[in-house]
Each structure stands twice: as structure tokens, then as C-alpha cells.
Specification:
Keywords: Signal. The chain contains three helices and five strands; from the N terminus they run H-E-E-H-E-H-E-E. By secondary structure, it is of the alpha+beta class. The chain has one domain. Strands 1-2-3-4-5 form a five-stranded mixed beta sheet, with helices on one face. Strand 4 and strand 5 form a beta hairpin. The radius of gyration is 13 Å and the shape is globular.
Length: about 120
């Protein structure tokens, strides 16, 4: 089970690392396939109709964050698992929502973190 400590630890690791001064830009030729379901401050909830490659999750995350720093775009490939509303911080996501997600794009770190609920 993924805990809130995991999310808090992820935020601390990212905060301690190199943080982008400007938001990354999506490839202008990339055609988005995912849908933003909610935004609240730094948290963005995204539904994708299918699992994507790491590069596609990166592109989708950049598009979903729309230049915001900090921004974390959480991805689900099952529409029933996407939370109804976006919380105002990552640590307020329910553990079950985190475990059901495919991962999170951290715009300020320019990095996608895959969630493997089986390993948690």
C-alpha cells in the first residue's frame, strides 16, 4: 500500500534536487491524447485512455501543467480511479488513489515517476 509518507518523501526528494527555473515545453508536434480532470494549485489529475510510453507521459505532463511551477500531474488509465476533485497538495491524495495511478509528472523536476503499487 502506498502511503502519504511516500508522497511526502517524493516531494522532499524533488525539493532537495535540482529544480527547473522555467517550465519545460512540450514538443509542438505532439498530439495530446489525455484529458485533464481536475486542477487545484500544484495538483493536476489526468485521465489517459491507455498506458503510454515514458516520453508520452512526459509530453502529457508538460501539457497538463501548462507552464505551472510547481506542478505534479497524476495519471490514471482507469477513469473510475481518478479522484472526483483535485486536492490542493499531493499529500492530500488518498493512498488508494495513488496506488491506482500510473505515476506522476513533476514539472519542476522535469521527471516522470512511475507508481508500482505491487512494490509498495
Amino acid at each position: 500500500m502506498i502511503s502519504r509518507c511516500f508522497v511526502a518523501g517524493l516531494a522532499l526528494v524533488l525539493g532537495a534536487g535540482v529544480v527547473a527555473q522555467t517550465a519545460p515545453e512540450a514538443d509542438p508536434d505532439y498530439q495530446a491524447t489525455c484529458e485533464v480532470r481536475g486542477v487545484n494549485g500544484m495538483v493536476t489529475l489526468v485521465y489517459c485512455p491507455e498506458e503510454l510510453s515514458a516520453e508520452s507521459f512526459r509530453q502529457e505532463g508538460i501539457i497538463a501543467c501548462d507552464g505551472r511551477l510547481p506542478c505534479g500531474a497524476w495519471f490514471w488509465t482507469d477513469p473510475d480511479l481518478v479522484p472526483a476533485e483535485a486536492p490542493d497538495s499531493h499529500d492530500k491524495l488518498e493512498p488508494a488513489s495513488i496506488a491506482g495511478s500510473h505515476g506522476v509528472w513533476m514539472n519542476e523536476a522535469n521527471q516522470f515517476f512511475e507508481i508500482d503499487a505491487e512494490k509498495q
